[in-house]
Amino acid sequence: MARMFRVLGFWTLVIALMAFVGDMFEFALLFFMQTAVFFLLGYLNFTEKTYLLMFWGYMVLAFLGFTYWTVFEMGIPV
C-alpha cells in the first residue's frame, strides 16, 4: 500500500508539471503540494489499514472541496 501512495505522488507530479507548463500556476502549486505529501506518506511505512483510512479521508476532503468550489465559487453560467 505504501507503493500506491508513491504512485499517486508520481501521477500528481505529472499533472503538476503539465499544469505548470500550461501556465496554471495555482493549480500546479496545489498538485506539487499533494505530490510532496504522497511521497512523504509513501515512505513512512504505515499499516495497510492506516493507509486506507488516510486515502478515504483524502477522497472525502477532495470531493467536498471540489463540490464547494464548483457550486459556490464558480457560479451559475449565464
Give a written overview of the molecule.
It is a single chain. This protein is flat. It is mainly α and 78 residues long. The mean pLDDT is 94. The protein has helices at residues 2-21, 25-42, 48-73.
Short structural description:
The chain is mainly α and 78 residues long. It contains 3 helices and no strands. The chain is 82% helix and 0% strand.
What labels describe this entry?
78 residues; mainly alpha; 3 helices; 82% helix; 0% strand
Helix and strand topology:
Elements: H1 2-21, H2 25-42, H3 48-73
**Arithmetic mean pLDDT:** 94
Content-based structural category: mainly alpha
Using the CA coordinates, give the radius of gyration.
15 Å
**Main sheet record:** none
Shape assignment = flat
Unreliable spans are none
How many E-type strands?
0
Strand content: under 5%
Number of helices: 3
Element pattern in H and E: HHH
Proportion in helices? over 70%
Task: Give the termini distance in whole angstroms.
Answer: 45 Å
